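Give me the fold.
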Amino acid sequence: FLLKELDTLREKNKKLEDKLSEKDKELKTIKLDLELQERATEAKIAEKIAALVEEVYSAQRERDEAVMARLRLANEERDEAFLRVQHLEECLKELENINPEENDMTLQELLNRINNADTGIDILKNGAIILNQIHRTKERKKKIIAEEMNAVIEQRDAALYQ
């Protein structure tokens, strides 16, 4: 009887060991599945991080390009302004080099000189002389008008006083 029981116990023990082995295999399978899921999740996270980093780099490149474009434009504008200043300085020097005898010329003589000029510089020089004469004439007219107005006002005030 004991032998039978022992055999029964051995069979139960074997069945339990088999069950334990099966459960152990299931546990290992579950652990492997869980590990695979973790790695897949890590891969997805790494992929998202890589995409985000690429997006940041792309935005930085665009920003850098925009900054460089603005710098180039500012440099071009500075260079153009510098060239305009140089041109104005040259024009001013030309105006300063105008002969005083030319100031006494009549408008018709200056226009004839422009018509007979061979170069653009001569045209510019004579045109500057004409503009200078026009400006001085306007200033003289303003002075004369102001003096006449003052005289009229003084006469009126004197008449009112009497």
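Residues 100-161 form one domain.
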